Sequence to fold (207 residues):
Amino acid sequence: MGLNKIFKSALSYSEYRELANNLVAGGKTTGNNQSEKLLEFTMLNIQRMNRIDKTIQLVPEIIQKLNRSNQSCNWLLIGDAWCGDCAQIIPVINKIAESMKGKAVLKIVSRDTYPELIEKHLSNGAKAIPKLLILCNKTGELLCTWGPRPKPAQEIMLDWKNNKGKISWEDFEKQLHLWYARDKGQTIINEFIDLMEVCERKTILQP
Fold:
């Protein structure tokens, strides 16, 4: 299935949040894999998303930078409610999209809904999420991708992978989510300012 068709079938942010809440109420989460652990993660992630929705702020200067482009794009995000990175990142991306005055429409799809989608957009050979695909509104062509994490968070992940004998999963998780809490989405916002400039250049170069 083409990217445009997948985008049209995907969920808005509010629909994604509603789905997560409804699934948790029934003892489930998004995706094919179901377990008590993933359910616990999802319940914690809903709390994280609720907090970020209430606290994330974009100052006027940032909004102005994000709106420099006159191009409209569709944002197709691959993510799941059980994923801690998704919980920390997707609400921030949603706020960015909302600030762009209709130039960005965000839709979300589970990694398992279209397995071929994540297979085509691996991160260092892994099916890491969240993964954002930015599509030209007019042509449906893929302009840019982002993910699965802002650079400092990715460095924390890579450091853990390279030192699994020294750093426990619990300590890694604590360090990662402490970074997210302290950063308050600002690194993601700044990375998206640069990303929008890249997408703008690629749109201009399209025939």
Notes: The mean pLDDT is 93. The chain has one domain: 3-150+185-205.
